[in-house]
Design brief:
Largest sheet: 7 strands, parallel
CATH class of the largest domain: Alpha Beta
Strand order of the largest sheet: 3-2-1-4-5-6-7
Shape: globular
CATH topology of the largest domain: Rossmann fold
Number of strands: 7
Helix content: 40-55%
Length: about 260
């Protein structure tokens, strides 16, 4: 299927994370022109080399800390100016930490919500002037299935994800008349170094093996496995493409059937 993404101008936040990296590679393979935002210059340099290795043109890379509204605004303005437009904006930044609810203090809550929810809010504010002016565009927000089914030990992430989904649903009404579609993907657990670390922490805490810590998550999945970052990326590309032309305000859960509700 031709997704018609060749030469589309795509801005991606959180580009250096595992899912962000996979999304960048997937867009590059489709021939899109990329502006990649992340906090660490070394990670951006490695990602740039990886994208070029696919045969794509070198992306625009911008070091940006989304905790700063000024830095976010400047990064988005630079991307829009250098690319010429923002056809697609993908928000994939932010990874909340977990813990026992009554042990998570205000500072930890602030850090967690800052990383994903407020970073997403700032990114949307920064993107929309350009997209409204061009009266076209597609936005894809990477949230998480904890927005629908919160895990007790991962509540900061669940709250951030639920907030992002509320933004997507509400902004769909606001942005539709401007020709802008906004949707979200809700990944379930994804096989990654961060996931392995979380399972090791849980195993140590509960005095069990890593396999035993992971087993309940595998058992919940109708497919009996975790997703890969590349699988999540393919769903993001669909929402970014003209194949999803009449979809907006939608949150697609990609969790292998872990959530059992209708």
């Amino acid at each position: 299927m031709n997704l018609q993404l060749k030469d589309k101008n795509v801005l991606l936040t959180g580009a250096s994370g595992l899912i962000g990296h996979a999304i960048a590679r997937a867009f590059a393979t489709e021939g899109a022109r990329l502006a990649l935002l992340a906090r660490r210059p070394s990670a951006l340099a490695a990602l740039c080399a990886d994208v070029v290795a696919t045969g794509a043109a070198a992306p625009l890379t911008i070091e940006c800390d989304l905790s700063s509204a000024a830095a976010t605004d400047a990064a988005f303005a630079t991307a829009a100016q250098q690319l010429g437009s923002l056809d697609v904006v993908v928000l994939a930044a932010g990874a909340a930490q977990g813990g026992v609810f009554w042990e998570i203090d205000d500072a930890a809550w602030q850090r967690n919500l800052e990383a994903k929810l407020f970073g997403g809010i700032r990114s949307l504010r920064a993107a929309l002037p350009t997209m409204i002016a061009q009266r076209a565009g597609r936005i894809v927000v990477v949230a998480g299935n904890s927005a629908r089914q919160p895990e007790p030990r991962m509540l900061p992430g669940a709250v951030a994800n639920a907030g992002l989904i509320a933004l997507v649903r509400g902004l769909a009404e606001e942005l539709g008349p401007h020709g802008i579609a906004i949707n979200a993907v809700n990944p379930g657990p994804v096989r990654s170094p961060r996931w392995e670390q979380m399972m090791q922490t849980a195993a140590t805490r509960d005095g069990i093996s890593v396999e035993a810590a992971e087993a309940p998550f595998i058992a919940k999945s109708a497919l009996r496995r975790l997703a890969t970052a590349e699988e999540i990326a393919q769903h993001v590309l669909f929402f970014a493409s003209s194949r999803a032309a009449h979809l907006t305000g939608t949150a697609l859960t990609i969790d292998g059937g872990s959530i059992k509700s209708v």
